[in-house]
Design goal:
Blueprint (H helix, E strand, L loop, with lengths): L14 E2 L17 E10 L2 E9 L5 E8 L7 E2 L17 E10 L4 E9 L5 E7 L5 E6 L5 E6 L8 E9 L2 E2 L1 E6 L6 E7 L10 E4 L4 E3 L2 E12 L2 E11 L7 E4 L10 H4 L7 E9 L4 E8 L3 E8 H9 L1
Antiparallel strand pairs: 1-22, 2-3, 3-4, 4-5, 6-7, 7-8, 8-9, 10-11, 11-12, 11-13, 13-14, 15-17, 16-17, 17-18, 18-19, 20-21, 21-22
The structure holds beta-D-mannopyranose (BMA).
Beta-D-mannopyranose (BMA) binds next to strand 6.
Length: 313
């Protein structure tokens, strides 16, 4: 920790889509309580969101919303695409917060999401080719675990998973490796909650890792508990391309956080919770999809080079 004077204009790094929120319950084809925290990926040339949808029992399931431009005219599936079943006891209280990557070696999309039950939250994996039929691969690691995503490539022949166990009340970001997506080991903490800081109480992965020429860019959420509840803000970290356990840089400050009324007010106040990005090679622009106040789906834009410059300097 350095005590140099810092004063940056974070607001210039990410620009909110002026017509936020892009999805709310009023867009939904069936009755629900809230829609938020979507996974995001390019699919068949379109923008696909796998949205967390909470029903009025308080249980979540996942459903797709697809758009041509990533901003407007979302086509929402009439029925949930991934819904809890009795066969999987760990899902009794629902499915939450998906992250999506395309695994070239498997030729499938890998979705890591939180399965919730009396036993506590765990990370489950499902594979799909079409976002209609999913193959459940089961629980990856024991509870309590959240905020997970696979890297889209293998490292020295092994899959790598970023996740966020809570151990003795401490919530840091970990990485684990596996030869087969079933057996996990070489667990290591890669990003810690920072005492005193805006991200002092919990940190967790946001969207899927973004591969850049400088390293893997990780957008993460950090939590501070305050007298009026938790504030969920967003930070940046950069990890080595070849060895993703190696942290290169981390932002001292948050780069995005609750500000607009739709981020400040909702089922859970003051939450910005990014869970999906789509990168545009042509314009070098990122579309970051996030849940706002656990109530709606929102969008913000950023130039990749500016995020990397900010991190490096
Ligand atoms: C986290 C997750 C998210 C949620 C956030 C704020 O622990 O459960 O799904 O958006 O809390 O309530």
């Amino acid at each position: 920790m350095t005590y140099k004077f810092v004063s940056h204009d974070h607001d210039s790094l990410f620009t909110r889509y002026p017509n936020n929120p892009i999805l709310t319950v009023s867009d939904w084809p069936y009755h629900v309580n809230s829609v938020f925290n979507p996974g995001a990926i390019r699919y068949n040339g379109k923008y696909l969101l796998l949205v967390r949808v909470e029903d009025k029992r308080g249980f979540s399931h996942l459903n797709t919303a697809i758009s041509d431009d990533g901003k407007t005219n979302w086509k929402i599936s009439k029925n949930p695409v991934l819904y809890p079943t009795e066969k999987y006891m760990e899902e009794q209280w629902g499915l939450e917060d998906p992250r999506i990557v395309y695994m070239k070696d498997l030729k499938k999309y890998a979705i890591t999401y939180v399965s919730f039950s009396k036993g506590g939250p765990v990370i489950s994996l499902a594979l799909t080719e079409n976002f209609r039929r999913f193959r459940r691969m089961g629980i990856l690691l024991p509870p309590e675990d959240k905020d997970a995503c696979l890297f889209p490539i293998k490292f020295k022949g092994r899959y790598a998973l970023i996740h966020r166990p809570i151990i003795r009340g401490e919530a840091h970001i970990w990485i684990s490796f596996s030869p087969d997506l079933k057996h996990w080991g070489d667990h290591k903490v890669i990003l810690q909650a920072r005492p005193g800081s805006w991200d002092c109480h919990r940190v967790g992965l946001g969207p899927q890792p973004i591969r850049t020429k400088e390293g893997w860019l990780i957008i993460y959420h950090g939590v501070r508990e305050t007298a009026s509840g938790s504030i969920y803000r967003v930070g940046l970290a950069l990890f080595d391309l070849v060895d993703p356990t190696k942290l290169i840089k981390r932002s001292d400050e948050w780069v995005f956080g609750p500000k607009k009324p739709y981020e400040r007010t909702g089922d859970v106040t003051s939450v910005t919770f990014p869970t999906g990005v789509i990168y545009h090679e042509e314009t070098k622009e990122i579309y970051m999809y996030y849940g706002a106040a656990d109530s709606s789906v929102c969008l913000a834009f950023a130039k990749l080079d500016r995020l990397l410059d900010y991190l490096k300097n």
